[in-house]
UniProtKB/TrEMBL annotation:
<protein>
    <recommendedName>
        <fullName>Reverse transcriptase domain-containing protein</fullName>
    </recommendedName>
</protein>
<dbReference type="Pfam" id="PF05380">
    <property type="entry name" value="Peptidase_A17"/>
</dbReference>
<dbReference type="InterPro" id="IPR008042">
    <property type="entry name" value="Retrotrans_Pao"/>
</dbReference>
<dbReference type="InterPro" id="IPR043502">
    <property type="entry name" value="DNA/RNA_pol_sf"/>
</dbReference>
Length: 615
């Protein structure tokens, strides 16, 4: 069965809209003879319960049965498959993609195409035993081409001055005359209890999330009533302060009926589309998190229009969590909206941009060196699966409509509603007027989401030690480790879909320096782990340590002899054990240099000159 959201989105693609209904759809689909026994029922003639009942069985699918929608949808698609060759490709595709159960919603670009489509659809459906009726369109030309008996009951014989009716399209109010999506709010008197509030909040049907922030306000009240501190039963009266808050929100709901959203993504004066962009914003707050997706269309004349496609607002969990985690959850929602749009919308999207006002989230997404805790790691995996880091950009909070999705608004806040429905003003401007990309700094080591790596002194020979002891030549060892580090980074880049950053050329000086540092860190961790732990805790090494007389310090992850008055690095040799394999193979190597980013350099080991301090 097709997605309700997908059918509604495709209904908004083009100027001319069509709606129709299959008459008694379930009753047109026969049940296999072997299965009819499952649909037996007893019938008392004339309702007389004193006589012997008769046993009947249904031979068609009945309304209310769980299996009926899927069986009828299969029969409908089988009709398209069996008869598709007799019609244009679009006819069979419409039958397969634009029905939700028995309701058809379709949009095309011209009235001529709509008339032909309606004719062909009635014919192909007739071949499958279905009658397509109750036709409705925003075009009087199209409606007048449909027989009166096949029109929707709300449609009269149209004259030039006759207003088109308002009807429902899959539960959504479609004002055909204005060609707009609207909402009808019917507020019934419900008791001021959790059960009554739940019923009212759930009564507002909004499958596309176009008024999600308004509904979120009601959900916030309901969540507050569900907190353990209040301990309310489903039918207990709510506290006085919450009663006032609820009455205020409920009193604003009739204003939803004043919201009018153009059905079509294109304005009436737009020509052929030359560029279609998808812009998805996300955000999170202590109240909730959410996302909103906008379709930005540019026609051949340069006219720009921006429309809200999908919105989603979710409550923050009752268990307290950090704002960065909620903002990251909002980014995941943005990716899910993109996945829905990508699979359902039939407009070719030329580019996709994701916007967030969280530099922390951008740092997480663009990270390629830190390992995160499970919560963050799982969500980043979902984000990287659907997007590339280059698609994510920073936007100021004031220009982020998803901030509304994360906090909610009242139906009376017209300025905020307009911002939500049309997106930030910069989307209507040229690219050079958009927010400038910000440099994203690397994730700090002290970030609470970083997964800590605990190093232990193991007596088992590990793989890096095997590599170090295998080679008897320093340059060969250095280059081998450099290649391994590059391989590791290339694997990470490929996993993160950063193929343009993968390196395949010769090793450079920076990579050789990184390899040298990696080897020396391993040597020191293997030999001086206790001293390193003491210094990292800002404690002096023990007096009985063989390094005590050297006054060691940590710099750039390496143990060094502390020079007088903290002189340059060249006066602070790296400490390595006297008898280690790395020390021995360096004794036969000519002078090697270690260059630092600040321009200083320190010799590592030479044959007769010891720039490493041996212990």
């Amino acid at each position: 069965m097709n997605s309700l959201v997908g059918v509604l989105m495709r209904f908004r693609q083009d100027h001319i809209a069509l709606a129709a209904d299959i008459e008694a759809m379930f009753h047109q689909v026969r049940v296999k003879d072997d299965d009819c026994d499952a649909l037996r029922f007893l019938w008392w003639p004339n309702g007389n319960l004193k006589v012997q009942p008769k046993c009947y069985q249904m031979q068609v699918h009945l309304f209310g049965a769980t299996s009926s929608p899927s069986c009828a949808a299969y029969a409908l698609k089988k009709t398209a498959i069996d008869n598709g060759e007799l019609f244009e490709t679009e006819i069979a595709s419409t039958v397969e993609r634009n029905f939700y159960v028995d309701d058809l919603l379709k949009s095309v670009d011209t009235e001529e195409r709509a008339v032909q489509l309606a004719t062909d659809l009635r014919e192909i459906m007739k071949r499958g035993g279905f009658r397509l009726t109750k036709w409705l369109s925003n075009s009087k030309v199209v409606i007048n081409e449909i027989p009166n008996s096949e029109r929707a009951p709300s449609v009269e014989i149209l004259k030039s001055n006759t207003a088109l009716p308002t009807d429902r399209a899959l539960g959504v109010i479609w004002d055909v005359n204005d060609d707009a999506i609207k909402y009808k709010v019917k507020l019934e008197e419900k008791p001021l209890t959790r059960r009554g509030i739940t019923s009212t909040v759930s009564s507002i049907f909004d499958p596309l999330g176009l008024i999600a922030p308004i509904i979120l306000k009601g959900k916030i009240i309901l969540q507050d009533l569900s907190k353990q501190s209040i301990k309310l039963g489903w039918d207990d009266p709510i506290p006085k302060e919450k009663e006032e808050e609820w009455i205020k929100w409920k009193s604003t709901l009739p204003e939803i009926e004043n919201i009018s959203i153009p059905r079509c993504f294109k304005t009436k004066d737009m020509k052929e589309i030359s560029d279609a962009q998808l812009h998805i914003f996300s955000d999170g707050s202590e109240i909730g998190y959410g996302a909103c997706a906008y379709l930005r269309l540019v026609d051949t004349n340069g006219k720009v229009n921006c429309s809200l496609i999908l919105g989603k607002s979710r409550l923050a969990p009752l268990k307290q969590t950090t704002i960065p985690r909620l903002e990251l959850s909002g980014a995941v929602v943005a990716c899910k909206l993109y996945e829905i749009i990508r699979d359902e919308l039939e407009i070719k999207i030329d580019s996709v941009v994701f916007w967030t006002d969280s530099m922390i989230v951008l740092g997480y997404i663009k990270n390629e060196s830190r390992r995160f805790k499970t919560f963050v790691a799982n969500r980043l995996s979902s984000i990287h699966e659907l997007t590339s880091p280059g698609q994510w950009r920073y936007v100021d909070t004031r220009s982020n409509p998803a901030d509304i999705a994360s906090r909610g608004i009242l139906a009376t806040e017209n300025k905020q509603i307009k911002f939500w429905l049309h997106g930030p003003e910069f989307l209507l401007k040229d690219l050079y007027e958009w927010p400038k990309p910000k440099a994203v700094s690397t994730v700090d080591e002290q970030d609470i989401e970083i997964k800590r790596v605990v190093m232990i002194n193991s007596t088992t020979t590990d793989s890096i030690r095997d590599i170090i002891t295998y080679f008897s030549n320093w340059q060969v060892l250095q280059r081998t480790v450099a290649w391994l580090i590059r391989f590791k980074k290339n694997c990470i880049r490929r996993f993160l879909k950063r193929d343009d950053e993968i390196k395949t050329d010769s090793l450079n000086a920076d990579e050789l320096q990184e390899a040298t540092r990696y080897i020396l860190i391993h040597v020191q961790q293997e030999s001086f782990l206790n001293e390193i732990k003491m210094i990292e805790k800002q404690n002096p090494v023990k007096k009985d340590s063989r390094l005590a007389s050297l006054n060691p310090v940590m710099h750039d992850g390496l143990l060094r002899v502390k020079g007088r008055l903290n002189l340059s690095l060249s006066k602070c040799p790296v400490i390595i054990p006297n008898s280690h394999h790395v020390t021995l193979i360096n004794q036969v190597v000519s002078r090697t240099k270690w260059s630092y980013r600040n321009g200083t350099s320190a010799s590592i080991i030479t044959g007769k000159v010891l720039d490493f301090k041996r212990t």
